[in-house]
Amino acid sequence: MLFLIELVESVRSFIATGGNVLYFVAVALLLMWILMIERYWFLASNYPTMRDDIIKRWDARADTTSWYAHRIRDTWISEATELLERNMLTIKTLVAMCPLIGLLGTVTGMISVFETMAQQGTGNPRLMAAGISMATIPTMAGMVAALSGVFFSTRLDAKVKLAKAKLVDSLPHH
Amino acid sequence: MKKVINFVLLAASLSAGFATTASANELDKLLEQVKADRISEAKLDKKREAEFLAARADKQALLNKAKKDLADQNARNDRLTKEYAANEITLAQKEVELDNAQGTLGEMFGVSRAAAASAYGSISTSIVSAQYPGRGESLNRIANSKEIPALEDLEELWFSLQTEMTESGKVAQFSTEVTNLDGSKSTENVTRIGTFNIVSDNGFLNYNDEVGQVQPLAKQPAGYISGTAADFFSVSSGFAPVYVDPSRGAILALETRKKTLEEFYHQGGTVGYAITVLLILGFLIALERFIVLGAVTSKMKTQQKNLAQPNENNPLGRLLKVYQENKGVDAETLELKLDEAILRETPSVDRGINLIKMFAAIAPLMGLLGTVIGMILTFQTITLFGTGDPKIMAGNISLALVTTALGLIAALPLILIHSVVAGKSKAVLHKLDEQSAGLIAAIAEKESK
User: Fold this and answer.
1) Which of A39, B191, B276, B402 is deepest in the core (most CB within 10 A)?
2) Are the beta carbons of B441 and A96 separated by less than 8 Å?
3) pLDDT in tens, B360-385
């Protein structure tokens, strides 16, 4: 319990020095990871049964060479692809947004630095330091969030492409 | 010529001898009178001499008197000098006696004076003085008096310190005169939180110790802070959370100088407003797309369940219609017809989506424009006023940064919303482009069996 309280306290102090923009980074990161975990879950548990079902249906068909059969095969592949690629665009967008949110934090931090300068002058660097930490910490947080997403989202993309290619190969015209 | 002069001289001598004989009687009279006058003047002189002599005697008497007075005063002076010297000695004796009588108490009086001086500093500026005015004066008197403090003074000091101590631990409600920002005065109920803050239902108040007035802050801090003050004021029992300024007003004073978000927004100027227009336009387009695409998707879903009766109100229904009208033709012609129909449907589905993307790209650029304008203003300021005052420069720089921030703030949601809307339209297009042919093929197969 004490460990948790310490953890919460360290997060709180981190956000206090980094400014409110960190909340946006946190929301983007959370959303990104929820979507990515959902994708992994789909690829690991739901997709194989779906794939097997499609292959079984295709194998059961008598006619697999006519124009109609081609269209039906395309449709099934398209439906499977749609499910496979759902939310991938959003995940990529979120990955791209994280550094932008960090940049927003930089700008708001610099605004607060100059605001302090406008009010108090440059006499006390300690007063400005608060704004500077508000400028740099969100940038760092945005970068870290984006990096954590870039690796896994790329892997996920490759997985989806591979799954799609395998499905296409599993539906031969015989 | 000579004759004329002789005649004149003769005439003159004749006339002079004539006049002498005429005034002989008057000269006698004059002589008589001079004689008489001489006698009377001698008399007068005598008299004046007598007067002077008499006066001389008087002056002598006066001089004698003055001399006597001087001697008297000198004598008095001597006497008083002696008396003074004697008194000095007595005074010294008495002071020694006093010191002896005071004993160690003398130190205590010094301490009490110092205590009063230090208490005066903190008590006169304390907000408790708003509730109990006039405490500072007596303390000031004790601190500055040269005499030994009287018992009442000591009691006053003790009482003031005790009041401050007790009241600093209390949350008290009292009625006081509040000097409003427009100079008018009104009597209001206020709540004092220890020695930290005074709050009323309008938020935080400030105690100005220089004029001894309770004044509202020039600007209340952010709503969530001042709101707790008003809430706290209205609570009658139990506990309520409230923001307290532990620096006794200094932080609140800084807070009043802070800009609100709204003020920051308006610093962005025209560029800022243009970015806002972009954001709103983007949102409106996205909203329209959401509604239209949502309706299309749901209609297509119902159509998919009922493939036999194509409905003209959705793209999929229109494709099915094309198939039903061209049932007899061969597969290749049918495909061409379907492709044509799909091409007709595409623009209405992905309309406006690229516009959102464009807005998302333009917003940060406009922010950059605002930054550049702000920097130009900054350098103009430098040209006019030099770099001496960082405050003047910093004002424009913060103005420049605000537009950058606004550009990013507008771009972020637009990017996100674009990805969502694009995903939706892509799904619809997929259905039309890749899956409709399959559906039609399935129907055709079923019908041919």
Assistant:
1) B402
2) no
3) 999 999 999 999 998 898 888 888 88
- Residue B260 and residue B224 in contact, taking contact as beta carbons nearer than 8 Å: no
Alpha helices, DSSP H, located in B235-268: 250-257, 261-267
Find the chain A residues whose C-beta atoms sit closer than 8 A to any C-beta of B: 24, 63, 67-69, 71-79, 81-82, 86-87, 89-90, 92-94, 96-97, 100-101, 103-104, 107-108, 110-111, 114-115, 117-119, 121-122
**CB atoms A75 and B441 under 8 Å:** yes
| AA identity, residue A174 | H
3-state secondary structure A84-147: HHCCHHHHHHHHHHHHHHHHHHHHHHHHHHHHHHHHHCCCCHHHHHHHHHHHHHHHHHHHHHHH
Q: Do A82 and B423 touch (CB under 8 A)?
A: no
Q: Which of B397, B422, B438 sits opposite A114 (nearest CB)?
A: B397
pLDDT of B11 higher than 90:
no
Helix/strand/coil (H/E/C) assignment for every residue in B407-422: HHHHHHHHHHHHHHHH
Tell me the C-alpha distance between A141 and A99, whole Å.
8
Positions of chain A with pLDDT lower than 50, given as ranges: none
When scoring A24, A70, A71, A112 by the number of chain B Cβ atoms within 10 A, the one with the most, hence best to mutate, is: A71
State the Cα torsion B31-B33-B36-B41 to the nearest 10°. -110
| A97 chain-B contacts, CB cut-off 8 A | 412, 415-416
Between β-strands B171-179 and B203-208, what pairing exists: parallel, antiparallel or unpaired? unpaired
DSSP type of residue B204: E
Residue in A75, A82, A100 closest to B438 by CB:
A75
Q: Look at B16-25, B168-177, B237-246, B410-419 and tell me which has the smallest mean pLDDT.
A: B16-25
- In which band, very low, low, confident or very high, does the pLDDT at B141 lie, cut at 50, 70 and 90? confident
H-run or E-run covering B362: helix B353-385
Q: Is B103 strand, coil or helix?
A: coil
Partner-chain contact B398 A118, CB within 8 Å? yes
- The whole-number average pLDDT for the span B90-94 is 93
Q: Which residue has the tokens 């002589």?
A: B31
Cα B160 to Cα B119: distance, rounded to the nearest angstrom: 8
Q: How far apart are CA A76 and CA B427, in angstroms?
A: 14
A117 with B391: Cβ contact below 8 A:
yes
Q: What is the ipTM of this complex?
A: 0.85
Number of inter-chain CB pairs under 8 A, A vs B: 105
- pLDDT tens for B298-328 read 998 888 888 778 888 888 888 888 888 887 7
Nearest CA in chain A to B407: A104
Read off the pTM.
0.67
Residue in A147, A157, A136 with CA at minimum distance from that of residue A95: A147
Give the count of alpha carbons within 13 A of B330, CB side only.
2
Residues of chain A found within 8 Å of residue B424, distances taken between Cβ atoms? none
Question: Rounded CA gap, A77 and A53, in Å?
Answer: 12
